[in-house]
Automatic annotation (TrEMBL):
Pfam families named in the record: PCuAC
The keyword Electron transport belongs to this UniProt entry's keyword annotation: no
Xref: Gene3D superfamilies: PCu(A)C copper chaperone (2.60.40.1890)
Biological source species: Ralstonia mannitolilytica
Protein name: Uncharacterized protein conserved in bacteria
Signal peptide segment: 1-28
Record-linked InterPro entries: LpqE-like (IPR007410), Lxx211020-like (IPR058248), PCuAC_sf (IPR036182)
Keywords tagged on the record: Signal
Keyword Aminoacyl-tRNA synthetase: no
Length: 167
């Protein structure tokens, strides 16, 4: 026979389970494929993280963090005239059902003030902050494998990081 105390306990467990399932369903709305980070050499303070993201219902990435770098931001590289420019973005739209590639020479996660060398075949934990279509913000954990320093290199072109330096 169930007492009122055991009924209350069962109700709490059911509410908790429903909340966990709702959170899991929210995360399932955004899939992450082939996450990777470009390796570094000692003394190198920046790198990039790359992956393909797809949202079932439409969403946007509104933030990124990682314990391996002081700063992680969504960036875009784009040709302006004859110069490749890179700029930080406040968010990255994930249109419903469309794959969005984060790749060298395009959208990517910029890792700045990297705290230690990123060694090939190790893993970098990333946390994506994703705003869902219903405006809830959820965190999605991603483990990105470190690839060789030369992985994904593009042909040499003139580029600009927003500073006043020349090559």
């Amino acid at each position: 026979m169930m007492t009122s105390r055991s009924i209350r306990c069962s109700a709490r467990v059911a509410v908790l389970a429903a909340g966990l399932l709702a959170g899991t369903a929210a995360l399932a709305q955004v899939t992450v494929q082939d996450p990777w980070v470009r390796g570094t050499v000692p003394g190198q303070t920046s790198s990039g993280a790359f992956m393909t993201l797809q949202s079932a219902e439409g969403a946007k990435v509104v933030g990124v963090s990682t314990p391996v770098a002081a700063t992680a931001e969504i960036h875009e590289m784009k040709m302006e005239g004859n110069v490749m420019r890179m700029r930080a973005l406040p968010s990255l739209d994930l249109p419903k059902g469309q794959a969005v590639q984060l790749k060298p020479g395009g959208y990517h996660v910029m890792l700045m003030d990297v705290k230690q060398p990123l060694v090939k075949d190790t893993t970098v934990p990333l946390t994506l902050k994703i705003e869902l279509a219903d405006k809830r913000v959820v965190e999605q954990k991603v483990d990105a494998k470190v690839r060789d320093l030369t992985a994904g290199n593009m042909p040499a072109k003139h580029h600009d990081h927003g500073g006043e330096h020349q090559h």
